[in-house]
Design brief:
The chain has a single domain, classed as Beta-lactamase. It is 45% helix and 17% strand. It has ten helices and ten strands.
Amino acid sequence: MKKALAIIILLILVFHYQGLAQTKILRQKILSILSTKKAEVGVSIYGLESKDTISINGNKHLPMQSVFKFHIALAVLHEVDKGKLSLTQKIYISKEDLMPDTWSPIREKYPDGNVKLPLSEILQYTVSQSDNNGCDILLKLIGGTKAVNDYIHKAGIKDVSIKATEAEAAKAWDVQFNNWTTPLAATKLLKTFYEQKIVSKKSFGFLWKAMLETSTGPDRIKGELPPGTLVAHKTGSSGTNKEGITSATNDIGIVTLPNGKHFIISVFVTNSKENADANEKIIADISKAAWDYFVNKQE
């Protein structure tokens, strides 16, 4: 009996150290990708079923840009789940709600405002197309950035700060840094969302679909993955200042593998002196390395 137990313990230790060796190889591959880049990069990768974990600068406070629209959508859907809001309710949008100098498919479609859109449509614009005006309309609806920040913290995700609206962030370069997360916190939030511990099954289904339909950042997490791969994700992007620094090229999401399993990936590229294409390729290369790791693991 003791001999059998010893063999079992030995096998467990062997598999454990094999797993550590494999994740170490992936970590080294990511570090190799980053070695020549003039950028600070935060990475968090987690196998939802395998529990494999890799992080680089995982506890760094990094600017989110539009990644925070995922957090806002969760807060709005929480209010829907409580019955305080409804996806079918109509929200009035005035011309004053539509900032002129910002990314906004809503404004492109309704340049004069004076329109009522269902909450579901505003959420889809905000998540799937990263509409900045839609974002601030949602923030106004649920009580501002503090309401979102408090909700996310109460959900157990502490290493996040949400303090500025899109309109406020557009006024000065430094304001964007008030909205930050750590890569590990972003991955933890995605995990909590996927496990349906933060919104109802119905709300999960709605937001999952919106994230799968994300049209921004096709060359980031999805960039080097096989065509048709399901990626539920949310991007974030900043401008580039006069010194040639790009503060944020981000993408966080959940990738579905060929065997139906999943991995979460959060990549934040900040303080970058690389061009826009190079910043996106950093994310794509890391995503492909993670894909190869998990696909090989299932064989």
